[in-house]
């Protein structure tokens, strides 16, 4: 089974925290471990009404080791964090695509399973796995134990550690249905570096080389997914700032070395135009409308307009 993996360098938000608890006895009504003959909780009923019935999506918050990766030490996600994540995925991702592309699109293409774990999956090279997508069917989200800290920090942290990951992995799923255009991989085709993306100098010079993130340099498939996910989760001011920074760095390198440099903003925006065309022709999605929708919904979450713990059903 093909598995796409999104990595990121771990920043301060991923630092380990210790939580105290008032009792050693588990609250069985909020169990996050799969147990025999378990009864439906109110959260289970909410998931049935908001995920299973409308979208046929299985949102797994209880820990089941067979859904995790045996190569890493993993722990369950906390119950309250799972409730918040279920709301966030629904409001920021599923309903964004509903609004822009229609519910039929979301039902057809959105992954049919989410599985949550509490800790990141740590790699020996100093990176962490934020999420994985398997065969267009399942998305694993890690690091749920740090969700509250990300919420407190705002949209940038939420996107960096969770929602850019979901949009990235969903892009891979769409790419499995409609192939990436051949001209995309030609724009920066000689600059992909595989697993060396996290090493010096690739981990710092990616913008001036025509890539929107360090991980974009891994392959054209990851480049495509990073481009789309970062475009829709960041506003125009942030994006334009990156383009200015990229061109300035390339110009400084040219002046220092005397070697002619490509104009990185042109490379990045050429790839973006190909993505824009692909999404419109393949799925009838205008990525600029999708971006404004995602941005508006992010602002609602940051402003506290979305009750992330409400699991009442009409």
Would you kindly provide a written description of the structure presented here, covering whatever features stand out?
Strands 1, 2, 3, 4, 5 and 6 form a six-stranded mixed β-sheet that branches. Helix content is 48%, strand content 9%. The protein is an alpha/beta fold and 314 residues long. The protein contains ten helices and six strands; from the N terminus they run βαβααββββααααααα. Mean pLDDT is 85; it is low at 1-29. The longest helix has 23 residues, at 79-101.
Search tags:
globular, 6 strands, disordered N terminus, 10 helices, alpha/beta
User: Unreliable stretches, pLDDT < 50, 5 or more residues?
Assistant: 1-29
The total beta strand count reads 6
Q: Strand pairing plus helix content: what structural class?
A: alpha/beta
Counted by DSSP, the helix tally is 10
Shape: globular
Mean pLDDT: 85
- How far is it from the N-terminal to the C-terminal residue, by CA? 39 Å
Instruction: Summarize the helix and strand pattern as letters.
Output: EHEHHEEEEHHHHHHH
Describe the main β-sheet briefly: 6 strands, mixed
List strands and helices in order, with pairings.
Blueprint: E1 3-9, H1 42-55, E2 58-60, H2 79-101, H3 103-109, E3 113-116, E4 121-122, E5 127-134, E6 138-141, H4 147-153, H5 155-177, H6 184-187, H7 220-233, H8 236-257, H9 264-283, H10 287-302
Parallel strand pairs: 2-3, 3-6
Antiparallel strand pairs: 1-5, 4-5, 5-6
Helix pairs in contact: 2-3, 2-10, 4-5, 5-7, 7-10
């Amino acid at each position: 089974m093909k598995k796409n993996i999104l990595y990121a360098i771990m920043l301060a938000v991923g630092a380990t925290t210790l939580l105290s608890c008032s009792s050693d006895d588990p609250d069985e009504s909020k169990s996050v471990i799969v147990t025999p003959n378990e009864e439906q909780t109110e959260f289970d009923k909410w998931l049935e009404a908001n995920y299973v019935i409308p979208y046929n999506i299985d949102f797994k918050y209880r820990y089941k080791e067979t859904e995790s990766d045996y190569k890493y030490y993993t722990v369950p996600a906390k119950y309250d964090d799972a409730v918040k994540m279920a709301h966030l995925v629904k409001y920021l991702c599923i309903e964004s695509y509903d609004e822009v592309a229609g519910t039929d699109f979301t039902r057809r293409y959105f992954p049919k399973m989410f599985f949550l774990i509490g800790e990141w999956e740590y790699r020996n090279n100093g990176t962490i796995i934020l999420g994985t997508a398997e065969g267009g069917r399942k998305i694993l989200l890690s690091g749920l134990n740090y969700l509250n800290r990300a919420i407190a920090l705002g949209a940038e942290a939420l996107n960096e550690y969770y929602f850019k990951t979901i949009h990235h992995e969903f892009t891979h799923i769409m790419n499995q249905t409609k192939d990436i255009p051949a001209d995309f991989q030609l724009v920066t085709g000689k600059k992909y570096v595989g697993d060396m993306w996290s090493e010096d100098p690739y981990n710092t010079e990616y913008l001036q080389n025509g890539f929107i993130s360090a991980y974009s340099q891994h392959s054209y498939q990851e480049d495509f997914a990073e481009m789309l996910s970062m475009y829709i989760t960041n506003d125009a001011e942030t994006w334009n700032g990156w383009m200015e920074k990229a061109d300035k760095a390339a110009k400084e390198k040219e002046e220092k070395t005397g070697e002619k440099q490509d104009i990185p903003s042109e490379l990045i925006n050429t790839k973006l135009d190909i993505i824009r065309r692909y999404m419109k022709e393949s799925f009838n999605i205008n990525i600029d409308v999708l971006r404004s929708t995602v941005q508006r919904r992010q602002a609602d979450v940051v402003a506290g307009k979305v009750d992330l713990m409400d699991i009442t059903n009409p």
